[in-house]
């Protein structure tokens, strides 16, 4: 059963979503308003999905969404009465997986949640790939820097510098990046 | 946000950069995983736009499951494992597989126990005599039911007049556990990849009776394997992966110092977790069999050999199918050439090799002579599979 953290941020606190969710067979943990510390609640409740019901998402709502997306990424679905496309764009940028305007029916909840979760998963996979790519580029730059330093120190060509670094790394059971960092540190120390 | 959204689009569409940049690579603790470990740790992947995350596996069956579930993107594979999964032999549904390149030739061994050694069973004739005279059957271990070690063991036994399925029993034991099973007296011999054959000798636990290269000099062995779905979904990643591993293979064999440094890296806890003395000598071709014989093997473990060890020849893939057929693992002849064409990613390999300036032959097959004198060149797989005196063909 899907565990849903429901944030009711509507003015009248009518709990318009709760009934529909329970009817659809979800486990609902309800919070009233966004005065709570959302990341902390997400950490304790460990929901599969976060639902935010708000008449119009304001700055404070967006900030909490950004924090959750950064530290404890979860699919976030926002139900709102706000039609403004600018607000919608802000919400998506902050990390909302689905933005639903009006019209809440029990029958429509499951497909909405399914889409939100699929979207979330593919976003996460893309993010992981991008992160790996950034790290790859950063490592490559450090290795090239070390190679350049070694070429100067040893008066050797590129190929020889790589071979020396690799042989050193392998005989010490290290990765090339570790030896590159040692060369850079040593060269900094020697000025 | 623009930074984040524009760059993935540029690399997803219309470029030859890898579609998937971070790959999980499975391997088993064996000397012939060297090209993958060196590729992943020594900066060979970054220039090709990849990050390789090494994932050590404890059994070939576990590695196969990881490939099929997608947990592993590619892996150090037995030739016979890729083909068995592709053909649906051995408990899993047939899944189209891909052999991206060869990882090595040679470097496996058949060992016997100290007990057999003490009884003077130290050569093929003595073993044949023992098998045919003794009332109890000997038990041999290999590493996977359709794997290369099962095929080398069967082929070697048969070449000595011992029927591998009738005259002896065989069991599957993961490579790194051979020695423990030998110590416990559960097995009388085994066929395994290095360093585990050398390690048993070093620990005074028996001797090496035959090397795999004595069965077939420069035989196909491990491959870089994946599923066909991976190649179809991420063709650029697949090509970049082949180029990365090929460059690492070339580096390892560029000098004796590089080979030694590779052996040192492999002995680390994260990889083979074994004494350098069990890894290095046979990686350099220096053999000691445990009976006092020492020699330098001209066909020792070969990870590159100017690319000759890496070409995924169609005839190499077909050979394993002929042996599956010979030993009754296949009840009917498959379309040998058709299946090999699907599995062996020869075009992809040629692309990657050409990009690195590595020679790639125009032929898709090669010719070899095996220990029993038969010649295999891929021209008549049906006839070849039927041409053996000892076999388990139901219809022959």
Question: Could you characterize what this model shows?
Answer:
The complex is a heterodimer of chains A (about 190) and B (about 400). With about 190 residues, chain A is of the alpha/beta class. Chain A has two domains: about 5-105, Rossmann fold (3-Layer(aba) Sandwich), CATH 3.40.50; about 135-190, Orthogonal Bundle (Arc Repressor Mutant, subunit A). Chain A has helices spanning about 15-25, 40-45, 60-70, 85-95, 105-155, 160-170, 175-190; strands spanning about 5-10, 25-30, 50-55, 75-80, 100. In chain A, strand 1 (about 5-10), helix 1 (about 15-25) and strand 2 (about 25-30) form a beta-alpha-beta unit. In chain A, helix 5 (about 105-155) packs across helix 6, helix 5 crosses helix 7 and helix 6 crosses helix 7. By secondary structure, chain B is an alpha/beta fold. Chain B folds into two domains: about 1-105 and about 220-285 and about 300-365, Periplasmic binding protein-like II (D-Maltodextrin-Binding Protein, domain 2, 3-Layer(aba) Sandwich), CATH 3.40.190; about 110-220, 3-Layer(aba) Sandwich (D-Maltodextrin-Binding Protein, domain 2), CATH 3.40.190.10. In chain B, about 40% of the residues lie in helices and about 15% in strands. Chain B is built from 18 helices and 14 strands. Chain B has helices at about 1-10, 35-40, 60-70, 80-85, 115-120, 125-135, 150-160, 180-185, 195-200, 210-215, 230-235, 235-250, 255-265, 275-285, 315-325, 335-345, 345-355, 380-385, and strands at about 20-30, 50-55, 75-80, 95-100, 110, 140, 170, 190-195, 205-210, 220-225, 285-290, 295, 370, 375. Chain B has a five-stranded mixed beta sheet with strand order 2-1-3-10-4, sandwiched between helices. The longest helix of chain B is centred in the middle third of the chain and has 18 residues, at about 235-250. The interface of A and B includes residues 93, 126, 129 and 137 of A.
